[in-house]
Amino acid sequence: MNIREKSFLQRTITKNTDMIQCFQLMADFFMLEFHTKQGYDLLCTSWRTFITKGGRSAVVSFVRALLGEEPSNTMPLSLLSFICYIRDQINQRNFHGIQHELLLNKKEQLRYLKPKKVAEISGLLPLICSCLSTGGISHVVDVGSGLGHVSRFLANQIPGISVLRLEAQGQLLEKADKIDQIFTKKSNQLKILSTNRLLQLGPGLVQSFTDILTEVDINNQTTFSSSPILLLGLHPCGDLGPYMVKLFSESHACTGLVMVSCCYLHCTDQGYPLSRLLKSQCHSLSLPVREQACHNIEVYLQRLLDQLTSSEIPLNQHWRSIGEVSLRKRCGEYRARMCFKKARPGESVVEFINRDLTDHGYPGLSEEESEFSENLSKEHRWETWLYYFFYTVKLCLGVTGEHLILSDRLLYLLEQGHKAELRTVFDPLVSPRNQALVALK
What we know:
Blueprint: H1 3-22, H2 24-27, H3 45-54, H4 56-66, H5 77-91, H6 106-112, H7 115-135, E1 139-143, H8 149-157, E2 162-166, H9 170-184, E3 192-195, H10 205-220, E4 229-234, H11 240-250, E5 254-260, H12 276-280, H13 287-292, H14 297-308, H15 316-331, H16 349-359, H17 367-376, H18 382-415, E6 419-424, E7 435-440
Parallel strand pairs: 1-2, 1-4, 2-3, 4-5
Antiparallel strand pairs: 5-7, 6-7
Helix pairs in contact: 1-18, 3-4, 3-18, 4-14, 4-18, 15-16
């Protein structure tokens, strides 16, 4: 990435921080309180007017525009601008590559792998092979390896490489080893080592990693500590992702990085921000934004559109916020957390709320409360459509949040003088966290 592209990335990061700051109150709003705290008042007047006048058709038009269809000509210009901004970020997640074919028979795939995992590994393999070839690397460390599916396929399909699994949970390593034994019967080229070690996240990160490699070399007569290494992470959770980025940058042993991030909600201020640009601004992302960044926006939009264009009105989320009004009257503002269940087929809003109240030891709705809840849930009520519009905007801000987190990690590597880029490696409809951070020294 040249200076011009780096400058463009910095401007994009600044735009994303401005976007989230502009909608911060909406992004952090707790949807169960939509009716108790009049969440619709946070919407700008032109947006609220557009939805209240158009009702269902206005929400449908908004969702379709986010999915790439022609927007309504009655939309406010500010809403059209918002749609274009989010749509551009969603488009960057689209996958246009070719899936790599796994060299396994169908029975084995179905027995150990879900379709999601097959798609993830298929998308990663070509990228990993390219990095190994370009960097002259023959040693891979799979950080947070879990059941070892990725490392197993690497060792099975790429001749001459050695793989080390680094996993803190011993039970997962034991299960991975058992699966390895089955695959070894069909291939004698598996070269996989496993270690049940927790990588120390903090100031001693590099030394902790070096100690692990040295211990593995001594016990197994390998050369991990003295050979170029590719750090591999498929959905490392929370701070493990950003610390992998730091480890790649700071450790002389690590010459390659392929990492697909996830679980942003578990990141602390130690994991975000990384770049000098955002650190200088003392920027932070709230928990709601990081949590929304973990959602599958493509699946949500399509599911909501299917419901809105059928005779079925989306119920669960809106009904929960209606039920919250009655719960607050009984329990007060600081009540114990209560989680509404899903609505049953044919169940009315009153039956839905009463079932949850009685399950938690509270009396059912009074006649007055029942009438209020029924009226609030009616299709013609403008609050219904404002609710789904509001929630969709919140999830859109999650897309910006993820884009900001990944851009921050990319910029950090560029600031350290490394070659790095983001690549889309699989279909977001199958696996929503689908962008890989790739770097080579």
